[in-house]
Specification:
By secondary structure, the protein is mostly helical. Strands 1-2 form a two-stranded antiparallel ribbon. A hairpin with an 8-residue loop joins strand 1 and strand 2. The protein starts with 5 loop residues before the first strand and ends with a helix. Bound molecules: fe (iii) ion (FE) (3 copies) and zinc ion. One fe (iii) ion (FE) binds next to helix 2 and helix 4.
Length: 187
């Protein structure tokens, strides 16, 4: 990253005020670390929520996709810890209100549906909301890391971002057949 200093001219005759880059970027860095704590909490919460979704699913294809993503999610917890380490920060979780809400919604959807294709369609709905939240988060975290000159962190965040995108694409593909089956389910 370029170590630029920003020059600010305070009127005609006043001396030049030099804003050091480290000071100027501190606010964004704090926001970055805070958002990392949030997604760290979210990933850990998902390692507990996914098994419940797996238990409720019936489609073999959906079950195996969720099982695979559970494993990926467990590895993401470790990857996020590595990002903290790259930043010289202690890995610390901060409750993510949004993920708590999305997980709660997944539970409500499962309660409101009969076990079978319709509940499977609901699990995909809830799962894709989760993936989209993660895609938005990691996309932003990755650009924060890049602009802050944290290149190693940026590439690891990009790796996680791609895993979330893969999960979303896979769920979309599975939903094609499940939704067709669900529309014929009149129970
Ligand atoms: Fe994740
Ligand atoms: Fe959050
Ligand atoms: Zn979406
Ligand atoms: Fe995910």
């Amino acid at each position: 990253m370029e170590k630029n200093s920003k020059s600010v001219q305070n009127g005609k005759n006043s001396p030049e005020v030099v804003v050091e880059n480290s000071d100027a970027s501190q606010g964004l860095r704090d926001l970055f670390v805070d958002a990392l704590r949030d997604i760290y909490w979210a990933e850990k919460a998902l390692t507990k929520a996914l098994p419940k979704m797996i238990k409720n699913a019936t489609s073999e294809e959906l079950i195996s996709a969720l099982e695979e993503h559970l494993e990926v999610t467990q590895q993401q917890v470790t990857k996020v810890e590595q990002v903290f380490e790259m930043l010289g920060e202690k890995a610390q979780a901060k409750k993510c209100e949004a993920m708590e809400g999305l997980i709660k919604e997944a539970g409500e959807i499962m309660e409101a549906t009969e076990k079978g294709v319709v509940r499977d369609a609901g699990i995909i709905l809830a799962g894709q909301k989760v993936e989209h939240y993660e895609i938005a988060t990691y996309g932003t975290l990755r650009s924060f890391a890049k602009i802050l000159g944290e290149d190693k962190a940026a590439s690891l965040l990009k790796e996680i971002l791609n895993e979330e995108k893969d999960a979303d694409v896979k769920l979309s593909a599975i939903s094609d057949s499940i939704n067709v089956a669900a529309v014929h389910e009149h129970a």
